[in-house]
Amino acid sequence: MTMKRRKGQPDTEMSRRARQVFLILAVSLAAGLSWGCTGAKPALLVDHYSLEYPPPVVQGMAALDEVLKVDRFSTTETLRRPLMISRLKPYVYYADPYHRWRVSPADLVTDFLVRDFRNAGLFKAVFTWRDPVDTRFELDGTVEEFSETSGPGGRKALLVLRITLQDRSRNGIQNRVMYQKKYESDLPMEGGTAEDLAASMSRSMALLSRRIIMDAYAAIQRASGGGTVSEKPPTGK
């Protein structure tokens, strides 16, 4: 309904204000109806976190004349998305909507493990699943736990990886598998924030990464009958 003034009636300050109020109410009503129809929701301000730690230092080990390929890790359905999961009491999984990992835990672990393998300098080359090459030795794994937990000792960052190393030059899957091993770390958190979880998970990944590199190196060294000694032992830097 529009407000009309009678013929000859002066356009007073009061009538002008009334029209302005009516216009504001009409615009607000239209906006509210549009919001309800589209189902739009205000965007959440989300902080994204990643692992951050220096690559493990490896010294005094001869580089092997072998090539290693690291496949993309898989994960459980619970960890498929980049959510920061907390399990502070039995049967309850809590995902913080305001704090997330930058990418999924499986991709975080894969990318940092590839970086650490390359930085160690123990192999002639280290490729990933993105590289269209076939290699004799392939390493893949599954992220089974990547979450905050609580226990008698307080809050911890629980990281559990299951690693499989294969020699694809052998016939039959039962002969190709060199080993399958579970790696686990549950280091304490300094506090209860998302940043504390990322820091503790980084320390856990640094610890497990070094163990994985050393185990893979020893297994491949045995399978290849030793390696070529480099002129300068790799330092991992």
Any overview of this molecule?
With 237 residues, the chain is α/β, with parallel strands linked by helices. It has a single domain, classed as Rossmann fold (3-Layer(aba) Sandwich), CATH 3.40.50. It is 32% helix and 32% strand. The chain contains 4 helices and 9 strands. The chain has helices at 13-38, 105-120, 173-176, 194-224, and strands at 47-49, 64-70, 74-75, 83-89, 92-101, 123-128, 137-151, 154-167, 177-188. Strands 1, 2, 3, 4, 5, 6, 7, 8 and 9 form a 9-stranded mixed sheet that branches. Strand 7 and strand 8 (154-167) form a beta hairpin. The longest helix is centred in the last third of the chain and has 31 residues, at 194-224. The protein is elongated.
Share in helix: 25-40%
What structural class do the secondary elements suggest? Answer: alpha/beta
CATH architecture: 3-Layer(aba) Sandwich
For the biggest sheet, the summary is: 9 strands, mixed
Question: Can you tell me the CATH superfamily?
Answer: ABC-type transport auxiliary lipoprotein component
Categorize the overall geometry. elongated
List key phrases describing it:
alpha/beta; about 240 residues; Rossmann fold; disordered C terminus; nine-stranded mixed beta sheet; elongated
